[in-house]
Amino acid sequence: MKLILASNSWIRKILLDKVGILYTIDAPEIDEEPINNSISDPHQRVLKLAELKAEVVAKKYANQDALILGSDSVNLRNGISYGKPKTREQAFEMIKAASNARDVQITAWCVINAKTNKKYSGVEELHFDYLEISDEAIHNYLNQPNTKGYLCSGGFDIGSQFYLRHCARVYGSHGLFYAIPLEKIIPVLQENGFKV
């Protein structure tokens, strides 16, 4: 049995690497815009996208001993959905909105057994409460040569020193730091013969 990650997300790969789960990447090419535009509820939207990613890849591995893992996330800051910033100005505004605020990361996951077509899926949340963030701190973070702020929803990497300095509290699934709720995924892997 092999695990196929239906994503190119660097953060998801980090988590699987850290826990020593072997996997192959086969990111599907799907147009997310129609789903993003047609489903307003963020929980339903990320679940639909996670399932679609897994289903598209599962078709390629039909009748094979493979588990396909699809996932999708959205970050809500003060109820507003923020994607990845395209410009420095957008990144600044996104991060500034986190000052003394709360983020809710909503992540959906879907695992499909390509041989049996059995599907497992769900939606989890992770809440972040932030301290005050000064303009100077934001500019310093964005000026760092290796900042991952432009690769992350909401404008900053939750594994960075910047995050550690400004996050007051975290509630929810620890695995969602890496956009996969491992406490849900590991039992599915074990049920399907993985030694985790």
User: How many helix segments?
Assistant: 7
Q: Could you name the CATH class?
A: Alpha Beta
Order of helices and strands: EHEHHEEHEEHHEH
Structural shape:
elongated
State mean pLDDT (0 to 100 scale): 89
Number of strands: 7
Proportion of residues in β-strands: 25-35%
- The CATH architecture assignment turns out to be Alpha-Beta Complex
* Oligomeric assembly: single chain
Main sheet record: 7 strands, mixed
Proportion of residues in helical segments? 25-40%
Question: How many distinct domains?
Answer: 1
Structural class: alpha/beta
Q: In the CATH scheme, what's the topology name?
A: Maf protein
**Rg result:** 17 Å
Give the low-pLDDT segments. none
Termini Cα gap: 13 Å
What report would you give on this structure?
The longest helix is centred in the N-terminal third of the chain and has 19 residues, at 42-60. By secondary structure, the chain is an alpha/beta fold. Helix 4 (88-96) packs across helix 5 (135-143). The chain has a single domain (2-191), classed as Alpha-Beta Complex (Maf protein), CATH 3.90.950. 34% of the residues are buried. It has helices at 10-18, 33-38, 42-60, 88-96, 135-143, 161-166, 182-191; strands at residues 2-5, 24-25, 66-77, 80-82, 102-113, 119-130, 167-172. The mean pLDDT is 89.
